[in-house]
Amino acid sequence: PARPALHGAAPGLAPVVDRVPTRDKVVFLTYDDGAERDPRFVDMVRELRLPVSMFLTDSVVGPGYGHFAQLRTVGASVQNHTLHHASLRGLPYAGQRAEICGQQEKLKARFGVRPRLFRPPYGTYDTTTLHAAADCGVAAVVLGREPDAHRLRPGDILSGFEEPNLTEATVRLLRRIQAEGFTPARLENYL
Ligand SMILES: [Zn+2]
Question: Which of 99, 87, 90, 184 lies closest to 136, judged by CA?
């Protein structure tokens, strides 16, 4: 699909996306931090050709980048979630820039690709974040929402459902997505 234009961003600021503007009955599966590295998740992504986006924090992944290299091989995308999982809102520009650009560079060094998407830890950000993100080459600041009780909507960016185990939580969520007539789609095709 063609990427829809992102509205609402001022010049020099990365746009904030909390839901993809689409009428397609699609939702997006996103995962944060990189703490859990379950080989069964790699198998599942491969077998189901599941489009998933992993927002990684360097200090959480630590020496575990090999797992995410495997996930990329089977089709996952790797995106930016800062170097140290800092709460960015209120921090000076230099500090925010270091957290965002630093992880852009780490991921570029690891995987050969500079991420296009960034998710701020705890979902907190300010205008300085959007300025720093744009300066670090981020195309969009992507928030997410937990798939709670109310029905899924087209373009929902789902996150925070990994408990207690991301593989089982994903299997459960996929049943619900299917039951409500939706399909998981690749976030990077829409943003
Ligand atoms: Zn996080």
Answer: 99
Helix (H) or strand (E) holding 141: strand 140-142
Q: How far is the CA of 12 from the centre of ligand 1 (A)?
A: 25
Across the range 47-76, mean pLDDT stands at: 97
For 16-190, CATH gives 3.20.20.370
| Distance from the alpha carbon of residue 121 to the mean position of ligand 1, in angstroms | 5
What's the CA-to-centroid distance between 163 and ligand 1, angstroms? 13
Instruction: Give CA 55 to chain center in angstroms.
Output: 4
What kind and span of H or E run contains 45? helix 39-48
pLDDT for residue 6: 62
Q: Output the average pLDDT for the chain.
A: 94
